[in-house]
């Protein structure tokens, strides 16, 4: 099974649409940007979620004390860090960490080893100068193929209903993470969310199905 995270959610209506469509995790961006939400907004949403939905807070170079304060207040399950946070910083976070690596080339794949002992997982995203995720840009998936041999990989960066199946076939990631790829005119689109998750499930079922033995 490949897990699916719908990120950049800003209200209960869209969060519920993601959960109803079968999302395993929902993400809330606390860093500056058009998808930024407040701790108060997220706490209200989290309180309404059914069990077994993982909540993820997305941060960029947040002060450690503030990071842990928000995590506790919002009752977040995981912290997804998109900045230049060090392994030592990750180790001091009050919740398990997903560290994002912005991929430009093979040297970025090498950086994964630095974070394996202090994180729950590694997320690969496209490098875009001046941005920290949610850009809708892809990166060369050949690097993700190599990264997946080092650790379970969460794949992000330009995924959408039209290309996620090919990404799964090439990379076989542990999970996929999408934000702008399920939006229409900058707003989360329930139909695109549904289509994205359906294609992940169908492709994963085909790719990971045990081979039938001949009679």
From TrEMBL:
Belongs to the TrpF family. One of its GO terms (molecular function) is phosphoribosylanthranilate isomerase activity. GO terms for biological process: L-tryptophan biosynthetic process. The lineage of its organism: Bacteria, Bacillati, Bacillota, Bacilli, Bacillales. Its EC number is 5.3.1.24. This is N-(5'-phosphoribosyl)anthranilate isomerase. It comes from the Bacteria. Keywords: Amino-acid biosynthesis, Aromatic amino acid biosynthesis, Isomerase, Tryptophan biosynthesis. Pathway: Amino-acid biosynthesis; L-tryptophan biosynthesis; L-tryptophan from chorismate: step 3/5. InterPro entries: Aldolase_TIM, PRAI_dom, RibuloseP-bd_barrel, TrpF_fam. Residues 4-198 form the N-(5'phosphoribosyl) anthranilate isomerase (PRAI) domain. It catalyses: N-(5-phospho-beta-D-ribosyl)anthranilate = 1-(2-carboxyphenylamino)-1-deoxy-D-ribulose 5-phosphate.
């Amino acid at each position: 099974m490949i897990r699916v995270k719908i990120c950049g959610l800003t209200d209960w209506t869209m969060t519920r649409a993601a959960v109803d469509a079968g999302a395993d995790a929902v993400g809330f961006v606390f860093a500056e940007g058009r998808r930024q939400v407040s701790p108060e907004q997220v706490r209200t949403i989290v309180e309404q979620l059914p069990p077994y939905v993982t909540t993820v807070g997305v941060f960029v170079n947040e002060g450690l004390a503030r990071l842990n304060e928000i995590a506790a207040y919002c009752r977040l399950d995981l912290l997804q860090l998109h900045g230049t946070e060090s392994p030592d910083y990750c180790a001091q976070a009050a919740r398990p960490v997903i560290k994002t690596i912005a991929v430009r080339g093979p040297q970025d794949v090498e950086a994964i080893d630095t974070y394996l002992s202090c994180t729950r997982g590694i997320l690969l995203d496209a490098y875009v100068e001046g941005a920290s995720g949610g850009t809708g840009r892809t990166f060369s998936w050949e690097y993700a193929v190599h990264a997946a041999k080092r650790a379970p990989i969460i794949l992000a960066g330009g995924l959408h209903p039209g290309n996620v199946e090919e990404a799964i076939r090439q990379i076989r990631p542990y999970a996929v993470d999408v934000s702008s790829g399920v939006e229409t005119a900058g707003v989360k689109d329930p139909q695109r969310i549904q289509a994205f998750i359906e294609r992940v499930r169908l492709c994963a079922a085909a790719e990971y199905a045990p081979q039938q033995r001949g009679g």
